[in-house]
Amino acid sequence: MSLLAQRQEQRLRLVIGIPTLVVAAIAGIAVLLAGSPGAQPRASMLDVLTRVAARPDSTLPVATLMIDEESAAQIGEWPWPRSALGALVDAAEAAGAASVTLTMSVAGADPLSPDIVAQRWLSVPGVVTDDEIAVLTQLPSNDLMLARAVAGGPVGLGITSRVPGTDEPVSWAKTSANRAPWLAATVGDDAPNVFALPTARAAGSLSPELNDARVFAVTGFPRDADGRVRRAAPLYLADGQPAAAASLAALLAGGEEVGVGLRNNLLTTVGETPSTLTIGDGQTLALTSRSDFRLWFPQDIRIPTVSAWRALTDPEAWTGSLEGRHVFIGEAFSAQGSQRTARGQIPTAQLHALTAQQMALGVAPYRPAWAGIAEAATAFFLGLVAVLAVVFLPSVLSTLSVVSLAGLCFGAAFMTFKQTGILLDPSPAALASLLGPMAVGATVLANMVVRDDQVRGAFHGALPEKAMRQVQTSSGKRLLSGVHRDVTVLSCSLELPKPLLDQFKDDPEAYMDFQGSANDRLRRTILDHQGTVDYGEDGRLLGYWNVPIEEEKHIELACSCALKMLDDVSAMSQHVSEGHHLGKDDGVGDLSDGRIEIGIASGPCFAGPAGLGGRNRYAAMGQPVSFAGRLRGRSELYGPAILTDARVYEALRHHYAFLDLDFVRRESIAEPELIYGLVGNPFLKASKTFRELAEVQRGMLDAWREQDLSTATRQLQKLRGIPGVPQGYAELFERRIMNARLAKARNEADTAEVLGP
Fold it and tell me: Of 55, 35, 37, 39, nearest to 343 (Cα)?
């Protein structure tokens, strides 16, 4: 039956119920995350949109002076003293820069300043002489050298790089426009004295020499939770005074006027917050409720760059690269020296230059308050359309419909952004269009698994994984046809010690739980060895090999599985002790007083499904099945936990260690045959104890077969002297020899016991 027929045959509510919930969940998540900056996958999807629809190029001339590895090799390792930064400012001003902005913080003391070095040496007597210290104290401080370069010039001075990330709440603080002559704030036609700005964490106080700088700059960018920079805030309150982002500080230092529009409703407890930013007579830039805006890069993000050492050693040669430009001085060594963005790692100075150009253009993508609701509604509608298309259309048409809907989501978001600048996230609708149909397929398959009695459900956990994979294909159903072939049968039972059984009598539910857990572990061992699982009388576990898939090494796999079951029993012992508080103090011990009993026989059997519907099971029927069970029942008497028939022995006698145990008949009319105990791998054969035991038992059985009762008696006496031989086994042959002596006088001797009916 085709998938389309399966979809249309099943009840509609069963097919679209779970997919509808999946689509609704995607829509709900879209609403919940709509107001979270940097939330994934929306942030990455919007990165793609702004990359495909790049912003227009700006005419604002910018450049960077970069303290790079080449400069460090020529001038000296970073960090440089602030006097060197002052020299860079002088070089840029001499080249005719429209403004110069330091994109690294100069707050706090300069550890390389002569006065700071002198103070450090004074605290460690004997390092330098008093005369040397006196010379240092007479030198001008590095801050003074920088202040001389900054004084009166179009310079923005970085005072901090510590700004909160977008996943942190904004901390607002009130300020007055009077504290920054370059700042004008309005609400409608009013000009309030007090309003609120987001705060930036100060890196330290400025030295008195630098307090007269024209514009203070915040050099950091707010980062999203994934570490990428996607936003910029133009204004902050740092160290108690208004400060501009370094990108805006460059324009302010160059003489541009800045106007800030405030929201006419209180968003904080301290005052109105900035809602728009206007630079000179340019366009008005809309700000979000966090007073920031989304970065929007041009197609070409390259900025003219001059290496710092070149500007210091030959400033006149680089006048053409800096003249008339807003110059940003930056470094590329510290964590603040570069930023991760949607366009890769970008030096902080270059990122500020690009941001300054965007501010001058007055453009920024924005997301209206209703964006989340619109995205959720679109996701729910298109998701349902995709679900219904998959249910009612042929496979090819439904696939094309799903792919088309996902592509339509991105195309619509792209055109909306390109025409209006509104950023709408297409990922919820695209995910709903894809995951909804996938949920339909999963639901249909699940329904098929539940309702297909012949193939699935009843055989889950009974057939090995290789067989299940074939059974669940259309051609694999032939595996479940009845067959008649050689089957290796393993019958096993876990026999608990009597004290433990008595303990379980007070808690029968715990006993059933344990038996279920034990059987499940042994069942998984059978499946791991490519066997098929079934259950016999009294809950005994059965394993079949060579069905339903033919397996050349079926006897070897069954024996390997039996040996692994012995290891499983020791692991289950700890489970009993921990689950029922049984230990040495309780006089019960663990499962070492009990045993696992296993019988293995191989021969022709009928095999196949032996039931109908959900009550189906895979079973083998034939003489090897009953004989394996009878061998299992004799395990405690003979000693070894694993008993096998002669066919198993002949197939593996060179690969495993076997003990000859007894002559038996499967039926009263059958010929006598030996049964064997599987005791381990070939290395066990090399041990002296095993060789002695094997030779004595073989000698006793040979004598018993020949009815040489005297030799059999001598061998039995030797057997009694070997440690570990079960008392019941020795007594069995002692009775047989005695009865044989009596029967021999009557000519009725028989060397083989009948195990079958």
Answer: 55
The secondary structure element, H or E, covering residue 430 is helix 427-451
Helix axis angle for 688-705 and 709-720, nearest 10°, is 160
CB atoms within 10 A of CB 556: 18
Q: What is the largest CA-CA distance in the chain?
A: 135
The three-class DSSP label of residue 687 is coil
- Write out the residue range of the structural domain in which residue 721 sits: 682-757
Percentage of residues of the chain with pLDDT beyond 70: 85
Tokens for 545? 């090999």
**What's the rounded Cα separation, in Å, for the pair 156 and 149?**
11
Going by C-alpha positions, the residue among 266, 157, 247, 169 that lies closest to residue 210 is 157
Which phi and psi angles does 660 have, rounded to 5°?
-70, 130
410 and 533 in a single domain? The answer is: no
- Asked whether residue 353 falls in the same domain as residue 424, the answer is no
Backbone angles phi, psi at 705, to 5 degrees: -65, -35
Residue environment code for 617-634, b if the CB has 16+ CB neighbours within 10 A, otherwise e: ebbbebbbbbbbbbbbbb
Calculate the dihedral angle through the C-alpha atoms of 330, 336, 338, 343, rounding to the nearest 10 degrees.
-130
Last residue of a domain, one of 451, 475, 496: 451
State whether residue 655 is helix, strand or coil: coil
d(CA 120, CA 123): 5
Among candidate residues 604, 631, 652, the one where a domain is terminated: 652
Q: Are strands 532-535 and 541-545 parallel, antiparallel or unpaired?
A: antiparallel
Task: Quote the tokens at residue 281.
Answer: 């007579």
User: Measured between alpha carbons, how far is 384 from 378 in angstroms, rounded to an integer?
Assistant: 10
Section 451-477 average pLDDT: 67
Tokens 């996230």 correspond to what residue? Answer: 425
- Indicate if 355 and 485 belong to the same structural domain: no
Q: Tens digit of pLDDT for each residue in 183-208?
A: 776 655 566 667 888 999 877 777 77
Query: What span, in angstroms and rounded, lies between the C-alpha atoms of 249 and 182?
Result: 10
Report which of 303, 282, 366 is spatially closest to residue 50, judged by C-alpha positions. 366
Instruction: Clarify whether residues 245 and 299 are in a common domain.
Output: yes
For tokens 């069970």, the residue is 629
538 exposed, middle or buried (CB, 10 Å; 0-12, 13-18, 19+)? Answer: exposed
Residue tagged 């009775």 (tokens): 735
Q: Could you read off the pLDDT of 592-612 as tens digits, one per residue?
A: 566 899 999 999 999 998 876
Cα-flanking dihedrals φ and ψ of residue 679, to 5°? -115, -10
Q: What is the pTM of this model?
A: 0.59
Same domain, 356 and 373: no
pLDDT at 2 over 50: no
- Gap between the Cα atoms of 221 and 165, Å rounded: 8
In the chain, the number of structural domains is 4
The pairing of strands 258-262 and 231-232 is unpaired
The answer to whether residues 88 and 116 belong to one domain is yes
Using alpha carbons, select from 134, 145, 85, 142 the residue that is nearest to residue 111. Answer: 142
Residue 432: Cβ-neighbour burial (10 angstroms; 0-12, 13-18, 19+):
buried
Give residue 499's pLDDT. Answer: 80
Q: Which of 476, 484, 656 is nearest to 560 (CA)?
A: 656
DSSP H/E element including 327: strand 326-331
- Domain assignment of residue 456, yes or no: no
In this structure, is residue 522 part of a structural domain?
yes
51 neighbors 341 (Cβ within 8 angstroms)? no
CA distance linking residue 670 with residue 543, whole number of Å: 25
- Domain check: are 326 and 374 in the same one? no
Provide the CATH number for the domain around residue 641: 3.30.70.1230
Residues 385 and 477 in one domain: no
CB 603 within 8 A of CB 631: no
Specify the amino acid at residue 501.
Answer: L
Q: Which of 380, 368, 495, 462 is nearest to 424 (CA)?
A: 368
